[in-house]
From TrEMBL, chain A:
Protein name: Phospholipid-transporting ATPase
Record-listed E.C. numbers: 7.6.2.1
Cell membrane among keywords: no
Transmembrane segments: 88-106, 308-330, 362-383, 908-926, 946-969, 976-995, 1015-1035
Organism: Musa balbisiana
Keywords from the UniProt entry: ATP-binding, Magnesium, Membrane, Metal-binding, Nucleotide-binding, Translocase, Transmembrane, Transmembrane helix
Source organism superkingdom: Eukaryota
Catalytic activity annotation: ATP + H2O + phospholipidSide 1 = ADP + phosphate + phospholipidSide 2
Region described as Disordered: spans on this chain: 1-42
TrEMBL record, chain B:
GO cellular component: endoplasmic reticulum; Golgi apparatus; plasma membrane
Family from the record: Belongs to the CDC50/LEM3 family.
Low complexity bias: start-end ranges: 1-14
Topology in the lipid bilayer: Multi-pass membrane protein
Source organism (scientific name): Musa balbisiana
Name of the molecule in the record: ALA-interacting subunit
Protein's cellular compartments: Membrane
Primary location group: membrane
Basic and acidic residues: compositionally biased ranges: 143-153
PANTHER family: CDC50, ISOFORM A, CELL CYCLE CONTROL PROTEIN 50
Region (Disordered): 1-32, 143-165
Length: 1058, 351
């Protein structure tokens, strides 16, 4: 665990290939530096400081304004209408609306137009509001101010949108870059500056940019007066970490690389100001090129809803066909003897009823019936579901139990589409760092000169001891908490929870190896690339490339070696000098920094102390250098570092390796990435709920296994199946070289391991021993190949937990896709960093942790929560409710007798049968009870409007009572809606019936005059409603008595407890 | 021990800070609605509850059924089909020709015996079978505006083909419904004494007052070459033509009765009523039936046993179910919420 460095590569889009942070891949030799002018893909010409010149204007590059809106004012109506009518149901109703103006319509056109207009209008309004939000954001961004050189010795302020390619801009500290810029100079003489790229890739650490030497002298307004240069570079593309171009300045060509490029939406930090030339503007910038629409995810239910609508369509067409065929036959016979319905005037008929053209009449009748039975297709279903989903999202957003006090972040449902999917999650694929753990390294233990220090136990020990003490986990302050409480409490400093009375409070001086301890902390304080920042409360905080580095500097500070200033050439400490016995300020001249590279897996600095001693510090070792040794090496190193070469990195590494030798080991450190609060409990509960959890991490195998134990994913008694290619004989093979043979043998090896594991699992099937699969990235690459993915997945599915370590972001996404496609079950991916983006987008549901690692994961997620433990509530509470609710949308809406609910086909069919039963009962009972006899005591008989009202009243009652029986609990809302609907129907009858008969036609006074005072009407309703509900009531009781479901039992259990 | 002490310190500082109210906090506001903590009742179908529900339905339904059946039984109804018998024997082979011949005498005499005492009012209905007043073409073939107001008499849309005369003058009332007005007439007598049939108030009041205008007089009605049904008195406004108003309330089913009038005197069992009827209306073309109905009414309306029987049947079924569930409950008692039925309890090795 010691000194673990996250091999998190910082790329957003995996097609870019692996690039690791803090070094940029040199451009391929054949393309650079010799980029020919006008080569395909390298045609962009930037006339620096001369944007208005004729040559520049000829290029006609776009301005710097951006637009992320979906619609414009002009195309909103047609485009959004088009979007709307791409939905099957809406399109159907559009056609119906058109036909409804013809005499074919069985009802007035308004009856169909009104709901359609409401549904489409509401959805369009929603689109418009959303787009307006985007527009407002665009306007805000476009009108941000930036200083631009006016060509005559001064800078003036202008809006971002007015920037042109070639403009020279001045960006101040903590400002965003308005466009992709070529860094010309900074307030530092050496032309370096620091940028924060959180908006681009979610990484919080600062990145160093370095201008070309020739331009780094352009320091003031005057110097730009005569500055003219031409940049020839690549065309706009989405690759954030590459840039190829040449600067043509004073007749000399200088190659450009990403080190000189400042990207739009990143921020200038720790540098007073920089000057830059605009290269890419507006939509040509890399960040905008990256901004593609996230893949639209549709929930299973929505997909199935479409299918249901097709089924309903089919039944609609079927019913209509039967009706029209019968109609056609009847119409044809109209003229035959004994069947001549003279009162219909078949001799003088219109085309719709013409017995001589019965076929045509039948066709028209088909259209009419299609409209009449059109209510089978639930027009309002989409919008009702939309409303329900919005409400659910509000519930999720407002849930206090998912509010993180420390970070002040509530949960966010970013898309409402997938709420009900949360209830069906089968597999969770989780990132580790930042998701399960806090991603804030804590210095837990160290060993100095062979003596172990540090008394706090680590997570692993806690888990291994078998006691997960809730208090303990609860008490461990999260990163945020610590962050916030800095200054208020010395004890809880970020990254510092080291406890050992032998070292703290200056006690180390008394230790036997105080000399070594002194050196040890020296190394921690000096050998880093962190930047000290003075906080508001005058405390020194560190901005470091990685959290573990920050932990080292912090621990050094807390133990008396306060690193307080970094300049380009020096590092200054307040340190305790045991010889003098008090704190002194010391400055170390920084001679070289051998940056971290994943090949070397170390980082060193070379400094000159005030006593002119040359020291090489490497964690946690040192070496005293002699000048004879150092100077030639230094010359070499500088030369190599500044060379442009395809193998640049390798050669630099080699040179660095030459000096990082004969080191004296001081000790070892143990940093630990703390688990987030509540993670083991949450994982336990999710596992109990039958949800499989996979961890996909970039860590090495041992770390991953440790974390697995710490968070209870791996338990004692579990059998671990390890598939790895990191074995000695394979490593030996790798050295041999022959690539093809190697591939083949590795593939075979993985295949063999998987097969062995599979047979082992099947052998042990009866024994109930849970399995855990641990696989490393190299093996995974083979396991995911087409020939093996099947057996790999079988194996993975058979295991209770799966841990994939050393996975690249691309592999994470691939694994997610594989699980999703092969299991055909709902997958949920959870992660916090830019490297999880692919995984989040690939999974059915992506959950982003809105933690420390910036917003990239959150931006591409469907749900955002502040901590992993909230997943439990999100899935097990909200997910379940959402699923139940969406499923239950159907009976409410199908007021015509065909009802369907829970989303499995047998269930849907069951509900349809129930609906048909109810419909038959309603029809036969009503028409037989109200036959031709007098309807009331006063001798009046029931005409069609009375029969219609009676029947429809029965439907309203039946549907609402059915819903009431179906519901498992009632709050005032349910009461309101159900009983309110029935009351509303009566109110409608009365109010509509009181309208003048011109409007209400047949409904005129029908309730008030005919029905209300007729006992028959009320008795028929009671009879019909009870009878129509009886089949369902009987069935559900039968089922609950003989085949109870879990939720029934649990519900009873609850009642018993109360 | 160390661990615990160490952590407690961290926690106290953290939570102390957290509980303090912060400005601009994104903390969601508490409301019972958003937290989904509304008070809820959770009805649960326990066996006892179910049995009581079934029993309750039975208890309510059986008496209603009995009451309905009794009401239906109290109604005395005389139904006489006359369409076939009123055709002269020599014309039975071509009834259509008979009915369409304007020269022949259409009168017909029927005698009805009163089976039981009938107390007034006795409603007179005519009943048509196999007559589709609910046909879409037929139902729509009217113009409400024209019926309502004299000034709108030119409104004849929807009335095809009975819209206008050959010269283009509007027909009032237009449309197939009016055109096919039922026109059989009945005169009742007991012995030599005529029974008065009150034809006032046989239509719905809302129709008379609001749908058929007091100033709308029939015009050009049944003046075309093809005469459908009855004619109207051109001097009486539509609001007083109650036979038409009744006819124009179209029936929902192909078998229907319409009110013809009321006999406002009691009839005694054994009375023989002589009906002199004019058999004008053509149901022979489409094989329809015509019936004359005399009926008293109860609080439930006319005679129809269906409601009573259905109530008794459903009530009986519920009693049966109540008994069945009780037996199941007694034979195979199950404690409410017996957790041993849960799958994970049944099979401890479970997940």
């Amino acid at each position: 665990m010691a000194g673990e460095r996250r091999p998190r590569s910082a790329h957003l889009f995996f097609e870019m290939g692996p690039l690791s942070r803090s070094r940029s891949r040199p451009p391929p030799a054949d393309q650079s530096p010799g980029v020919g002018r006008g080569d395909a893909g390298y045609s962009r010409m930037v006339h620096c400081n001369d944007p208005a010149s004729p040559q520049a204007s000829e290029l006609n590059y776009s301005d710097n304004s951006i637009s992320t809106t979906k619609y414009t004012v002009a195309n909103f109506v047609p485009k959004s209408l088009f979007e709307q009518f791409r939905r099957v149901a809406n399109f159907f109703f559009l056609i119906v609306a058109f036909i409804s103006f013809s005499p074919l319509a069985p009802y007035r056109a308004v009856s169909i137009l009104l709901p359609l207009v409401v549904v489409v209008g509401a959805t369009m309004a929603k689109e418009a509001v959303e787009d307006w939000q985007r527009k407002k954001q665009d306007i805000e961004v476009n009108n941000r101010k930036v200083k631009v050189y006016d060509g005559s010795f001064s800078f003036y302020q202008t809006e971002w949108k007015k920037l042109r390619v070639g403009d020279i801009v001045r960006v101040e500290k903590d400002e965003f870059f308005p466009a992709d810029l070529l860094l010309l100079s900074t307030n530092h003489d050496d032309g370096t500056c620091y940028v924060e790229t959180m908006n681009l890739d979610g990484e919080t650490n600062l990145k160093r940019k370095q201008s070309l030497e020739v331009t780094s002298t352009l320091h003031n307004e005057d110097s730009f007066q005569n500055f003219k240069a031409l940049i020839n570079c690549e065309d706009p593309n989405e690759k954030l970490y590459s840039f190829i171009g040449i600067l043509d300045y004073e007749g000399v060509q200088f190659p450009l690389n990403p080190k000189q490029i400042l990207l739009r939406d990143s921020k200038l930090r720790n540098t007073q100001h920089v000057y830059g030339a605009v290269i890419f503007t507006g939509h040509d910038t890399k960040v905008m090129q990256n901004a593609m629409d996230p893949p639209s995810k549709r929930s299973n239910i929505e997909r199935r809803m479409d299918k249901i609508i097709y089924v309903l369509f089919a039944s609609l067409v079927f019913i209509s066909s039967i009706g029209s065929v019968c109609f056609g036959i009847k119409t044809k016979n109209e003229t035959s003897v004994g069947n001549y319905r003279w009162y219909l005037r078949p001799d003088n008929s219109s085309i719709y009823f013409d017995p001589n053209r019965a076929g045509l009449a039948a066709f028209f009748h088909f259209l009419t019936v299609l409209m009449l039975y059109g209510c089978l297709i639930p027009i309002s279903l989409y919008i009702s579901i939309e409303i329900v989903k919005v409400l659910q999202s509000i519930f999720i957003d407002h849930d206090l139990e998912m509010y993180c006090e420390d970070s002040d972040k509530p949960a966010r449902a970013r898309t409402s589409n997938l709420n009900e999917e949360l209830g069906q999650v089968d597999t969770i694929l989780s990132d580790k760092t930042g998701t399960l753990t806090c991603n804030s390294m804590e210095f837990v233990k160290c060993s100095i000169a062979g003596i172990a220090y540090g008394s706090r136990s680590c997570e692993m020990e806690k888990a291994a001891s078998g006691i997960i003490q809730y208090e303990l986990c609860h008490d461990s302050p999260s990163a945020f908490e610590r962050h916030r409480s800095e200054g208020t409490s010395k004890k809880s400093t970020k990254g510092f929870s080291f406890r050992d009375d032998r070292l703290t409070n200056g006690q180390w001086v008394g230790e036997p190896n105080s000399e070594v301890i002194h050196k040890f902390f020296h190394v921690l304080a000096i050998c880093n690339t962190a930047i000290p920042v003075v906080s508001k409360s005058d405390e020194i905080l560190y901005e470091a490339e990685s959290p573990d580095e920050a932990a080292f500097v912090t621990v050094a500070r807390e133990l008396g070696f306060e690193f307080y200033r970094r300049t380009q050439t020096s590092v200054s400490l307040h340190e305790f000098d045991p010889k003098i016995g008090r704190k002194v300020d010391r400055t170390y001249e920084l001679l070289d920094t051998l940056e971290f590279s994943s090949a070397r897996k170390r980082m060193s600095v070379i400094v000159r102390t005030e006593s002119n001693q040359l020291l090489l510090f490497c964690k946690v070792a040192y070496r005293i250098l002699s000048a004879e040794e150092y100077i030639p090496w230094h010359d070499d190193f500088v030369k190599i570092k500044n060379s442009v070469n395809a193998d640049h990195d390798t050669i630099v590494d080699e040179v660095a390796d030459r000096i990082e030798r004969d080191l004296i080991l001081l000790g070892a450190t143990a940093v630990e990435d703390r688990l987030q609060q509540g993670v083991p409990e949450c994982i336990n509960k999710l596992a109990e709920a039958g949800i499989k959890i996979w961890i996909l991490t970039g860590d090495k195998l041992e770390t991953a296994v440790n974390i697995g134990f710490a968070c209870q994913l791996l338990r004692k008694g579990m059998e671990q199946l390890v598939i790895t290619l990191d074995t000695p004989n394979i490593n030996a093979l790798k050295k041999d070289g022959d690539k093809n043979a190697l591939e083949k043998s590795l593939h075979e090896n993985v295949s063999k391991q998987i097969c062995e594991a599979l047979s082992h699992v099947s052998k042990m099937k009866g024994s109930n021993v849970p399995f855990a699969l641990i696989i490393d990235g190299d093996s995974l690459a083979f396991a995911l190949s087409t020939s093996l993915e099947h057996s790999f997945l079988d194996l993975a599915v058979a295991c209770a937990s799966v841990i994939c370590c050393r996975t690249s972001p691309k592999q994470k996404a691939l694994v997610t896709r594989l699980v999703k496609w092969r299991t055909r079950k709902t997958t949920l991916a959870i992660g916090d960093g830019a490297n999880d983006v692919g995984m989040l987008q690939e999974a059915d549901i992506g959950v982003g942790i809105s933690g420390v690692e910036g917003m990239q994961a959150v931006m591409s997620s469907d749900f955002a929560i502040a901590q992993f433990r909230f997943l439990e509530r999100l899935l097990l509470v909200h997910g379940h409710w959402c699923y139940r609710r969406i499923s239950a949308m159907f009976p409410k809406l199908h007021q015509d007798g065909v009802q369907n609910i829970f989303f499995s086909w047998p269930r849907i069919l069951g509900w349809m049968i129930n609906g048909v039963c109810s419909a038959l009962i309603i029809y036969y009972f009503t028409t037989h009870a109200i036959f031709h006899q007098a309807f009331r005591q006063d001798g009046h008989v029931a005409a069609y409007e009375i029969l219609g009202v009676t029947m429809y009243t029965c439907v309203v009652w039946t549907v609402n009572c059915q819903l009431a029986i179906y519901l498992s609990y009632f709050t005032w809302i349910q009461h309101c809606v159900i009983w309110g609907s029935i009351i509303f129907w009566y109110m409608f009858l009365v109010v509509y019936g009181s309208f003048p008969s011109t409007i209400s036609t047949t409904a005129y006074w029908v309730f008030r005059e005919a029905c209300a005072s007729s006992p028959l009407y009320w008795l028929v309703i009671l009879l019909v409603v009870v009878s129509a509900l009886l089949p369902y009531f009987m069935y559900s009781n039968f089922q609950k008595t003989f085949f109870p479901k879990y939720h029934d039992l649990i519900q009873r259990l609850q009642v018993k407890k109360e | 021990m160390n661990n615990v002490n160490g952590s407690v310190v961290g926690s106290s500082s953290g939570s102390g800070d957290g509980s303090a109210p912060r400005r601009n906090s994104k903390r969601p506001k508490y409301s019972r609605f958003t937290q989904q903590e509304l008070p809820a009742c959770k009805p649960i179908l326990t066996p006892k509850w179910v049995i009581s529900v079934f029993t309750l339905i039975g208890v309510v339904f059986v008496p209603i059924g009995i009451a309905s059946l009794m009401a239906s039984n109290d109604v005395v109804e005389i139904v006489d089909r006359y369409d076939n018998v009123c055709v002269p024997p020599n014309m039975t082979n071509d009834k259509v020709a008979y009915i369409q011949n304007n020269e022949t005498d259409k009168s017909c005499r029927r005698t009805l015996e009163v089976p039981k005492h009938m107390s007034q009012p006795i409603y007179v209905y005519y009943q048509l079978d196999n007559f589709y007043q609910n046909h879409r073409r037929y139902v729509k073939s009217r113009n409400d505006a024209q019926l309502r107001k004299h000034s709108q008499e030119n409104e004849t849309s929807g009335c095809d083909p009975e819209k206008r005369t050959k010269d283009g003058a509007p027909i009032v009332p237009c449309g197939l419904i009016a055109w096919s007005l039922f026109n059989d007439t009945y005169i009742f007598a007991i012995g030599n004494k005529n029974l008065t049939v009150n034809k006032k108030g046989i239509s719905w009041k809302s129709d008379r007052d609001h749908k058929f205008g007091k100033d709308v007089l029939p015009k050009n009605f049944q003046s075309g070459p093809l005469i459908g049904g009855g004619k109207l008195d051109d001097t009486k406004p539509l609001s007083e033509q109650e036979d038409l108003i009744v006819w124009m309330r179209t029936a929902a089913l192909p078998t229907f009765r319409k009110l013809y009038g009321r006999i406002e005197q009691d009839l005694n069992a054994g009375d023989v009523i002589t009906v002199t009827l004019e058999n004008n209306y053509n149901t022979y073309s489409f094989s329809g039936k015509k019936k004359l109905v005399l009926s008293t009414s109860s609080w439930l309306g006319g005679k129809n046993d269906f409601l009573g029987i259905a109530y008794l049947a459903v009530g009986g079924l519920c009693f049966f179910l109540a008994v069945a569930f009780t037996i199941v409950y007694l034979v195979k008692p199950r404690k409410l919420g017996d957790p041993s039925y849960l799958s994970w309890n049944r099979n401890p090795a479970g997940h």
